[in-house]
Amino acid sequence: MLSDVVDLLACPICADGLTLDGPVLRCPSRHSFDVAKQGYVSLLPGGAHTGTADTAAMVAARAAFLDAGHYAPLAVALADLASGTVLDAGAGTGHYLAACLRADSSASSRGSVGLALDLSKHATRRAARIPRVGAVVADLWKPLPIRDAVADTVLNVFAPRNPAEYRRVLRPGGRLLVATPGPDHLAELVGPLGLLSVDPHKDRRLADSLAGAFTLADATPLTIPLTLTRPEAVTLISMTPSAHHIPEPEIQTRLPSTPTITTTAHIRLATYLPT
């Protein structure tokens, strides 16, 4: 609930702290933001564009695929590394954030909470259902509507990176966990189906983008074999950026006619410490 995280939030207009006044967030300068009936709030700055946000169909596909446990090894690995107050930047449905809070057996005694940021209102509606999680529509490329030094862990799973802002919101001793697809991620589907591919130089670009704000502490490759039914394969593709370019009926026609489809998720999970 937003009441659990309101002391972490900042006004996107003036950066003052926010307080919850009934169904409205307010700052001392009298800027106000209505809380949606589903429990999330939009703290997008004026003129923000949401054209790249996940659609309702993409979010539904993501929820179905992740809730089925296909990427459980990634959720477990993140939960093992995360602790304290967790900010999920690009949270989607909040699947990984929820796993981190569940795994922290002392979270309730410490009052630890999770904060889900995503550009998609459809995603934040789902994230708002998770206990001890506040969900906020926000643009990760802009200054985050978050106070300084309030997070122990920042998650960044297949999402845009804003190193200066992630560094600002982390407490001393905090950590940034970044999950990125490897060059061979879902290669058995990407090539034959003409899906968007991963930049082979992604790791180098990631290192360059974080240099000066973070230092790499550890990097672990995760290999997750997947044996999917045709509907599950459609769901997987429908939750990726390729869904912005290939309609679901076209995905259906591109898939092989076999009853099951095998592919492999290649993911790099890296831990970064603030410099």
What does this structure look like?
The protein has one domain (2-274): Vaccinia Virus protein VP39 (Rossmann fold, 3-Layer(aba) Sandwich). The chain has 275 residues and is of the alpha/beta class. Helix 3 packs across helix 4 (95-103). The protein is built from eleven helices and eleven strands. It is globular and about 60 Å long. The protein has an eight-stranded mixed sheet with strand order 4-7-6-5-8-9-11-10, with helices on both faces. A three-stranded antiparallel sheet has the order 1-2-3, with no helix packed on it. The chain is 31% helix and 27% strand. The longest helix is centred in the first third of the chain and has 12 residues, at 56-67.
Entry summary:
The protein has 11 helices and 11 strands. With 275 residues, it is α/β, with parallel strands linked by helices.
Q: How is the secondary structure organized here?
A:
Layout: H1 2-5, E1 19-21, E2 24-26, E3 32-34, E4 41-42, H2 56-67, H3 72-81, E5 86-89, H4 95-103, H5 107-110, E6 114-118, H6 121-127, E7 133-137, E8 151-157, H7 163-169, E9 170-181, H8 187-193, H9 202-210, E10 214-229, H10 230-238, H11 248-254, E11 260-274
Parallel strand pairs: 4-7, 5-6, 5-8, 6-7, 8-9
Antiparallel strand pairs: 1-2, 2-3, 9-11, 10-11
